[in-house]
């Protein structure tokens, strides 16, 4: 593939285009992939379409200034992002161990980006060009725009705008505001004086110059007082609406951080234009010698149909980044991309996904959201579905039906997250039936996360029997269709509010449905989530009630092991957990026991009658994912970050299938947050 159609990455590329100087130089912690699942690609192409000259510096060597100077000083500004995935989540598992692969780097190689990439890059740019304007954005900057708890250092850090020394922070998805910023710079305004654009943060010396704002506790206060931290987060959380949100200020030493209200979400027409830009849809040819960029594999034959999520899971950062108002592309835009995809030389007939943060959300939760904004003191789906919610799958189903009819398309899968409670709220089963018949690749992945009402309350997830009714209907429809397909429920251990008792409650539920996950994931505290605030403060910031937090390695290991109680390697820790919880009734030979007595732990057959034995009613052994952010395709996020394989069982045969999870929020596929 010709390098000419990619944006310049070196002086030779600039000369070939006849450029003496770039207007903007975009520095990113990812390799350069010109695909609309990557934030760098979208922002650079949006600026290009607005008439600006943009160059790309991908994964520069941060030990010297050489790479930062290879395109020369930009006419207007450097733009800096930390990549599609938060650099710290990219580097470290929830246990703070270094990961083996960086899926956004050539050949999956680790070590090509620094920790806290945005801060490091800004410091090197300042070293190279002291007086240049710097604008930061992307998932790393967006979720760290206020003083925030940093899990990896176990401390409260200042706003990344302060720590990076940048002049302006653009948060959220940013297409419209980055063009507004570019136009202001082009008109001669310095970045640090751009104070009038929604979806941006800036610093001022005196708050007297800010109007109609709410002030939250200062960096000093929130770093010393957890009650103040929780109070500050509550305001941040409630003001993240483009219609009702207010300007927020927070003192940092002798400066004030000012967050303007969020930018309005894109209209359908605007979103269509963004996805119609001339992306090359692949990585730059310079990476071919290294084996390419692994992250492209999951998105190359997938289509982003929507962004935003009104699910508001408390452990997911989407509320803070993409917002709760769902936006979606038109049917025509989606179908056009699908048809173009079928002409790619390596297309095999399978479209891997059509979705977004939540695939079956296509519009706002209710008609009032675009006029009055989202509710500040109420969530759409938890603890129960709001009576005002518009539940309708017709438009999404219509898109899927037309995609199935495209020549060369053999199968269209839906692998993004689906809200099963939203499906169950639909009185018309047509979508559910056609989803099962045509769009499930053997396994349907959903996220009940837990079954304890106490834990689900703090997760912002629905409690009750909704998931059980969903499972029953799923298997009933499969039986009617003559299919044997499986459900892979994603589960999370050690979330705020989770105790040994609730972990045992979940283990007993798994016993009863005969399901044992191969891996489960501990809650991962990442910036910008309500759950992270609970983890740090021990308080629910919405009510200021105390929340139990499992903090010790021992208890986290116990909670995790209880979800895999039938694994012989977990016996000792499960035994210790049951003894500690006073649940000796679950140690024995009865059908309700989780494990055998210690003296018979390796008894006949290795399993007691009631234990999971590899088979389960959901017919699958899921290998779980590290989930820090809602994973997606628009730099997003996350939600859950790494993927593996699952082993399903069908009539004694083992079936291997991918279980890439579609936060935070959050997989080997790029995240939807940008």
UniProtKB/TrEMBL annotation:
<keyword id="KW-0004">4Fe-4S</keyword>
<dbReference type="InterPro" id="IPR058240">
    <property type="entry name" value="rSAM_sf"/>
</dbReference>
<feature type="compositionally biased region" description="Low complexity">
    <location>
        <begin position="656"/>
        <end position="674"/>
    </location>
</feature>
<dbReference type="GO" id="GO:0005506">
    <property type="term" value="F:iron ion binding"/>
</dbReference>
<feature type="region of interest" description="Disordered">
    <location>
        <begin position="596"/>
        <end position="674"/>
    </location>
</feature>
<feature type="binding site">
    <location>
        <position position="316"/>
    </location>
    <ligand>
        <name>[4Fe-4S] cluster</name>
    </ligand>
</feature>
<dbReference type="InterPro" id="IPR022946">
    <property type="entry name" value="UPF0313"/>
</dbReference>
<dbReference type="InterPro" id="IPR006638">
    <property type="entry name" value="Elp3/MiaA/NifB-like_rSAM"/>
</dbReference>
<dbReference type="Pfam" id="PF08497">
    <property type="entry name" value="Radical_SAM_N"/>
</dbReference>
<feature type="compositionally biased region" description="Polar residues">
    <location>
        <begin position="625"/>
        <end position="655"/>
    </location>
</feature>
<keyword id="KW-0949">S-adenosyl-L-methionine</keyword>
<dbReference type="InterPro" id="IPR023404">
    <property type="entry name" value="rSAM_horseshoe"/>
</dbReference>
<keyword id="KW-0408">Iron</keyword>
<feature type="binding site">
    <location>
        <position position="309"/>
    </location>
    <ligand>
        <name>[4Fe-4S] cluster</name>
    </ligand>
</feature>
<feature type="binding site">
    <location>
        <position position="313"/>
    </location>
    <ligand>
        <name>[4Fe-4S] cluster</name>
    </ligand>
</feature>
<dbReference type="Pfam" id="PF11842">
    <property type="entry name" value="DUF3362"/>
</dbReference>
<feature type="domain" description="Radical SAM core">
    <location>
        <begin position="295"/>
        <end position="566"/>
    </location>
</feature>
<keyword id="KW-0411">Iron-sulfur</keyword>
<dbReference type="InterPro" id="IPR024560">
    <property type="entry name" value="UPF0313_C"/>
</dbReference>
<dbReference type="InterPro" id="IPR013704">
    <property type="entry name" value="UPF0313_N"/>
</dbReference>
<protein>
    <submittedName>
        <fullName>YgiQ family radical SAM protein</fullName>
    </submittedName>
</protein>
<comment type="similarity">
    <text>Belongs to the UPF0313 family.</text>
</comment>
<keyword id="KW-0479">Metal-binding</keyword>
<dbReference type="GO" id="GO:0003824">
    <property type="term" value="F:catalytic activity"/>
</dbReference>
<dbReference type="GO" id="GO:0051539">
    <property type="term" value="F:4 iron, 4 sulfur cluster binding"/>
</dbReference>
<dbReference type="InterPro" id="IPR007197">
    <property type="entry name" value="rSAM"/>
</dbReference>
